[in-house]
From TrEMBL:
Native source organism of the sequence: Thioalkalivibrio halophilus
Domain of life: Bacteria
InterPro entries: DUF4382
Region Disordered, annotated ranges: 24-43, 316-339
Record-given protein name: DUF4382 domain-containing protein
Acidic residues compositional bias, start-end: 328-339
Domain DUF4382: 38-188
Amino acid sequence: MSQMGMWVRMAVLGAAGAGLVACGGGSGSSSSSDDGGTGQMSLAVTDAPVDSAERVVVRFTHVELQPADGERITIEFDEEDEENSVREIDLLALQGEDSEFLFEDEEVTAGDYSWIRFHLEPEEGASAPPLSNYATSSFIEFVGGYSENLTIPGGLQAGLQLSSGFSVPEDGAVSLTVDFDLRKAIREDPRFEDYHRMRRSLRLVDNDTAGSITGTVDPALLPDGYTCEDRGEDGVEACPGAAVYVFEGEDREPVDLRDTEDDAITTANVEYRHVEEDGDWEYRYTAGFIEPGDYTVALTFEADEDDPEEETPIDFVDQANATVEAGETTEVDFTGSDD
């Protein structure tokens, strides 16, 4: 995870409803309101992966936080390059238990919050409206090097909003991670040729209570003739279509993504990995940042055929139950047996 520097808080005076703004750079004063206490907040991002892509680079300009009762807070990024306040993160590099902080130990007003909104940098070369109202400089790069910029369906001003409540304890701290579920979020944009759209498929997790699920896949479960691909990363090969879906509750009947409440909460790619300890290779998956509870994990080799916006039945070859505990990693191997 990358480390951010200290942050300075700045109250911005202006028209009513202007809110509060925080800017990174050094030590500074609190931006909380006069009649409320403060706490510290850290926010990281991670990714549930998408097939056929090598990079998904998202360029964040700032984040907005909306208290349940109070002025909106804007957190801007102050990078080492003083002329560039954009945080550029390759989300596809943050799979499993990997994440990267957008900001750490930021002093904000204590209390309950209603939503988080992420704003992305506009595409500089976008043509006139309507494209310029939606196009960003963020992009998806496919296997082979071809890339397309990303649009925000609700428009640049609306950003990517996560309407999931959270709380910042007074004189305490909270550390959160937002899962950008790219398998659900990124699709071709039917309105604009040569663009992909990035839907608001976001999941908020408290890092203090999160656990993970990991395990191996028995090679006997692989379809006949199935092979993984070397994409230039030492000790790792990508396995197209091979993924594990994580559903809330035990003994769930696994289904494809359909943009409903019954969807898997997250997915994890299966990769063919070199095991340094014994020099062998194994098929392994890891699904990180999962809240404590009971889950069903299901294995498919057809994830690359799954359209998250409509019913596209895919075959799940094995499934198992898993219990996640805070701060723990649960091991669930797919063996094809009933044990």
